[in-house]
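Need tokens for this chain, all 284 residues.
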Amino acid sequence: MHLKLPSHGSNPHYLYEALEIEMPGSIIDFSANINPLGPPLRIKERWSGFFEGVMHYPDPHAVELTKAIAEKEALPMASVLVGNGGAEIIMLVANILADRKVLIIQPAFAEYEQACLAAGCEVDFHQLDAPGWQLDVARLIPRLREYDAVFLCTPNNPTGVSFDRGAVMELISECQKADCLVVIDEAFYDFTEDAFTFAPLIKRFPHLLVLRSMTKIFAIPGLRLGYLLAEWSIIKTVKSYKPHWSVNQVALEVGRICLEEEAYISETKEYIQSQKQKLSRFYR
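Here are the structure tokens for all 284 residues:
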């Protein structure tokens, strides 16, 4: 039986099955961008304490975690929606765009296209130029009024490039003039040295949506946890598509621990930078 090649990283055994070759006993998996340090130690230390929570339904509104995120981001709780990983958030956002026209800035995470197509959207693409992979807003501006939403990812997946901040801010402003939502995926922003975010602009630009993943930086892909930051009316609309209890109780508790792990994030950045320098020296 020939299986379809997987469209996402991780679960490498599916790739080997699709190729009909035997999977080695040991592999180095580069297909998923997960923190190589593993989850914060406090999660392991408190793991047994999560057992009682599995006997109860989780809070469908994730109030405590939402409150903690809102405080961290300096936004109202009404501007935060917790989801079952970044993938669920992307699907929910696509649902509010059902049957509309969207533009995806590429290279990009394949999930945007898949989610939008599943929602019945008409999907177009704007291809960035190598080797810099930077936004050319002047080329984008004439196209914006054709679309209901623009998707982009910074730091970009898969290129790793962070877009010029001024260019992104100009795009946000031009999208507002064009009555076009702009969806910025910041799943990897915690890995960058200065961890710059466009989330504060939500207060000025009500058409801006910022996606976050806790899966990558905290190495918890098996738990699934992410969140959306946006103007309250957008959050309300997106939330109407979200199933009750989509985020499990263990994930909710782990999420609150992760938000306190500033030292762990700093350690991660130092490690990533040292490994980048090591790799750079190797290829010179």
